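Researcher: I'd like a candidate sequence for this fold, 272 residues long. If you have to choose between options at a position, lean toward the conservative one.
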């Protein structure tokens, strides 16, 4: 039953790839928003915040919170070789140091890579790096737009923004309310406000005196308690080394991602 459910979910992405020429030269923001809407429709996501980890679980991903380096938000790996290490061919590593909202965005970001950049057949790996050069690449811009559209649907987001504006909420209050509603970071809210043309997101950021330290990363350092933690399991040093070895075989350099001294107290989170 579990495998059958995974196959049905994966068929959604396979169909999207086929219908859109495997997303070659696919960069139009309206089309990216459309694909995010299709995913929401196929997974019957009528409410918010978007249960991103539930989608990943349906596709068969195991999600690990890891102590990754500061400039790495997440890693995705797809390979049959991972089955021996963790009994699963699809895994996602999420930086445990980052706030809950950004962790959810990272999941949606990597799901975007799985949809747009994975061919559905061969081994695949990607890391979500915060390096400026990487963030400005066409593929990263595409998956960031997808993640934003999936977690903050355009129509719902716009309606909520206008509602709070009509109530006379100040900028900081609007950003805070939207962050709570969609369960994403204030950084993501400001970017979404800008890309939808509702306000100048960069100007709002400056007006609020925004910095990562005081506004984006210090908030919401809490467990992902809105998503049921279905299963928690320890990962031993030996198992961590197995994951390193198998992921290295599919092209990810993990020396900056794994810290063996911290490997004993790792936890695997499966969210539904």
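Model: Candidate sequence:
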């Amino acid at each position: 039953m579990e495998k059958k459910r995974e196959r049905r979910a994966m068929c959604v992405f396979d169909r999207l790839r086929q219908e859109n020429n495997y997303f070659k030269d696919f960069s139009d923001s309206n089309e990216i928003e459309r694909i995010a809407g299709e995913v929401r429709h196929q997974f019957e996501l009528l409410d918010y915040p978007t249960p991103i980890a539930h989608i990943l679980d349906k596709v068969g991903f195991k999600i690990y919170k890891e102590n990754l380096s500061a400039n790495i938000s997440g890693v995705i790996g797809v390979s049959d070789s991972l089955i021996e290490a963790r009994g699963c061919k699809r895994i996602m590593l999420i930086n445990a140091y980052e706030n809950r909202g950004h962790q959810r965005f990272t999941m949606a970001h990597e799901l975007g890579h799985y949809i747009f950049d994975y061919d559905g057949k061969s081994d695949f790996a990607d890391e979500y790096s915060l390096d400026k050069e990487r963030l400005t690449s066409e593929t990263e811009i595409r998956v960031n737009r997808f993640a934003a559209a999936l977690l903050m649907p355009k129509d719902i987001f716009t309606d909520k923004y206008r509602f709070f504006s009509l109530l006379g909420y100040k900028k900081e209050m609007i950003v805070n309310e939207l962050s709570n509603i969609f369960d994403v970071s204030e950084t993501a809210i400001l970017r979404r406000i800008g890309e939808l043309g509702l306000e100048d997101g960069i100007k709002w950021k400056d007006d609020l005196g925004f910095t990562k330290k005081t506004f984006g990363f210090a908030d919401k350092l809490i467990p992902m308690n809105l998503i049921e933690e279905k299963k928690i399991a320890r990962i031993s040093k030996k198992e961590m080394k197995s994951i390193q070895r198998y992921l290295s075989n599919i092209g990810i350099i993990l020396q900056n991602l794994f810290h063996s001294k911290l490997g004993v107290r790792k936890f695997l989170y499966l969210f539904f």
